[in-house]
Structure formats: C-alpha cells, structure tokens
Amino acid sequence: MSQQPNKSELTVLKHFWTIGEQSAREVHDGVSAETGWSYSTTRTVINRMIDKTWLTRRDVHGITVFDAALSKVEVFSGLVKDLTRKVMDIEGDLPVSMFAGSPHLTSDELDELDALINSSSVDDGEKK
C-alpha cells in the first residue's frame, strides 16, 4: 500500500476490524458519536475507500454491505514505519511491546506486527 489511511479512513477501518461487515447506515451509526459526521459524510468516506480498494462491497438480500479489505496489522505496520523511519529517522528494530496494551491487537497480531516492522526487506523502494 503506497498511501496510508487518513484519520477519517482509520476510524472507519477500526470500526470494520471490530464489528465486521456492515451497511453504510450501520457504519454511520457506529462511528457518528465519535466523528460527528452526517450520513452523507460517512457515505463519502466509504465511497472514497471503495475507490482506493480499501473496502469491499457486496449485496446481501438487497442491502449493500461493506468490509475492510486491508489487514489491520499491515496498516498499523505501515503507519509505524512511516512515523519511525521517515519522520523520526529511527533505524534498527523497534520495540513492538509498546503496542501490547492496545485493545486492537491480539498477541498473534503483535507477533505479525513485529515481523513486518522489523523485517529487513525492501519497503517502498528503500532498503531497511
């Protein structure tokens, strides 16, 4: 993924990672208290994310439902790498234990995150 989700897109992704597949109305009802968005704003964010292929879309019994097409671990690793490597200029292994208190990651996902952010593979055309 060459581009990282913005704050609005992360809010929607986190909702899907927690709840799973939902209609646009259900997503709106789930995020509106946090975001203050109107229904049309929620739809705009969802449509923009569909265009970026970050959400899937399908019809179930005549209702369109959406779900995250991005892995939360891949998104989190991209955000961590962008911040630490590109913004903070930190090289070397990063302590994934700092994310252990997150309600969004299981211990298996923390292991996966550690492997992704501390790998010495080529990322975005740069060697780590």
UniProtKB/TrEMBL annotation:
The keyword Transcription applies. It comes from the Bacteria. One of its GO terms (biological process) is negative regulation of DNA-templated transcription. Keywords: DNA-binding, Transcription, Transcription regulation. The keyword Transcription applies. Gene3D superfamilies: Winged helix-like DNA-binding domain superfamily/Winged helix DNA-binding domain. Belongs to the BlaI transcriptional regulatory family. This is Transcriptional repressor, CopY family.
